[in-house]
Amino acid sequence: MAHLLGAERLHLEFPTRTVFDEVTLGIDEGDRIGVVGRNGDGKSTLLKLLAGRLEPDGGRVTVRRDVRIGMLDQADTVDPEATVAEAVVGGIEEHVWAGDPKVRDVIAGLLGDVPWQGRVGALSGGQRRRVGLAALLIGDWDVLFLDEPTNHLDVEGIAWLARHVKARWAGNDGALVVVTHDRWFLDEVCTATWEVHDGIVEPFEGGYAAYVLQRVERDRMAAAAEAKRQNLMRKELAWLRRGAPARTSKPKFRIEAANQLIEDEPPVRNPVELNRLAVSRLGKDVVDLLDVSVVYPVADAAAGEPATRTVLHELEWRIAPGERTGILGVNGAGKSTLLKLVTGEVPPTTGRVKRGKTVKVAVLSQELAELAEWADDRVSAVVAAQRTSYVFGSGSKAVELTPGQLLERLGFTNAQLATPVKDLSGGQKRRLQLLLILLQEPNVLILDEPTNDLDTDMLAAIEDLLDAWPGTLLVVSHDRYLVERVTDRQVAILDGHLRDLPRGVDQYLELRRQQATDAASAPTAPASRPTAPTGPTAGASSAGAGAAAAASAPALAGADRRAAEKELSSIDRRLEKLQAQIAAQHEKLARHDQSDYVGLGALGDELRGLEDAVADLETRWLEVSEQLEG
């Protein structure tokens, strides 16, 4: 594999600390590297050094000639005065980018709900972030640096991004370096992991699961000061090894060592004990939603009459004591409405909500509103004002902890205990927010996007805390690893109904793909749409060009128009099948014996035939679209 870029003896200092000291590493073609580490240890700084955005105090970064480097950083760099179209495709002619399947795929995957001709400055922060990511991904890069690319993406968007970066290059081409707290994404995409800590970058083989295994082995040999983190990682490894086969099959080495490490490790949760405690704290009744529908009024000036939108339709859900449920759904599906029904913030339009007499609900919100009144107080004072002790665990393993010990368990140092709340980092505020809620001892806990601003270590610590929490847990999150880790059941809101998901997030994604396929095969309106279709699984081939087509009077009418629309829909389906065949052909080429030139030539000829077929269909797609547009 050819070398792309390298760093030699990098040294970087900030006024208060040394970030990197004598760091040497390299990136080769075919590398897919995930970067993990605690917040503030230098993950983003490392990417900026390697991408040439930041100069080191010592050492150097060398880049092979003609290597093209693209980077997504956490800053919002998109011109707010530009339109989405200008920001994404710039001055490229429409017929050029509309005929590029990669561009159409990116637009369909990231910008389904973004107005194509809208001004960037008028978009939400999450939409601007996706516009910046789309503008980067349509370019041709040899090395991609992505800093938290999964922020503001839902479960489907994250799955789409994983598929995109895996299919972006052939097996031994290009390189990806990604910083993310999304552990599913790390496991799905990455073949190597760099851990940034204590001024060094430590490499590990494999994705997140393999990294956890190697880290447990490293921690087992570490000093006694590492004992607490070692036990936490053992628990994380135990869950990984007991999890889905797709996850546990990733480590390619020392499986026996992993089994020895966890053979005496109990399950991460004792559901029988936790459910027993939950019943004793809650009683048998928690919250029952019985034939509940929620209808909101919507503005519809054209109708001349009040219009409504049904968010939830005749939904029935009986929440049990100790139930741990993850709730999935696209933005706007009704997840927040469902949670507000449980908390009582939203009354049902029809049906009724029945609550147990002892139910005490607490919500970990995204806004950190619970900390506003404590902004000027020290962390230690805030926690001391709540409770003097907290019982952690259950049964014979129950341990009484002081608030200080709880803070230490969540990663706070002695120095940070004297810090005013307003001066804490985003991740520290998030941990303090959760702690204050747990000290109130609710018996129903709702987590609304709890992973914001947290690194992988802190996520593992919070999951460990929740493992021993004896209550009913409802989780809404785009982090599928967290959802699968802390809940025992997953449900989805689809078309206003609650759908059980025995196979978890994978089943949800399959259902969403089926919805998109059904919608694409149904009779459609003219192709001249101002935006790309909703969702990353919509027909990518029609999305890109449809996004930029201007609405105008149709040239065809009657039977001719219906025939043209039918042909356009057929082309969309054929293009989607061909793209899947091309991706499979690339995988065949990557797996084929590279010394078998005859076989490689035959596979190459097949690939060129598929690409020619795509080009012909794209030309016809544009011709039919122009006829429909007039």
Textual characterization of the structure:
The chain has 630 residues and is α/β, with parallel strands linked by helices. It folds into 4 domains: 3-207, P-loop containing nucleotide triphosphate hydrolases (Rossmann fold), CATH 3.40.50.300; 208-268; 282-487, P-loop containing nucleotide triphosphate hydrolases (Rossmann fold); 510-629, no CATH class. It has 23 helices and 20 strands. The strands form 5 sheets. The protein has a 6-stranded mixed sheet, with helices on both faces. A 6-stranded mixed sheet has the order 14-17-18-12-19-20, sandwiched between helices. Helix 22 packs antiparallel against helix 23 (597-629). It is globular, with a radius of gyration of 26 Å. The chain starts with a strand and ends with a helix.
What would the keywords be for this entry?
43% helix; alpha/beta; 20 strands; Rossmann fold; 630 residues; 6-stranded mixed sheet; 23 helices; 4 domains; 20% strand
Mean pLDDT: 79
Rg (C-alpha, Å): 26 Å
Described by strand count, sense and barrel closure, the largest sheet is:
6 strands, mixed
Number of helices: 23
Percentage of residues assigned to helices: 40-55%
CATH architecture group name of the largest domain: 3-Layer(aba) Sandwich
> Superfamily at the CATH H level of the largest domain?
P-loop containing nucleotide triphosphate hydrolases
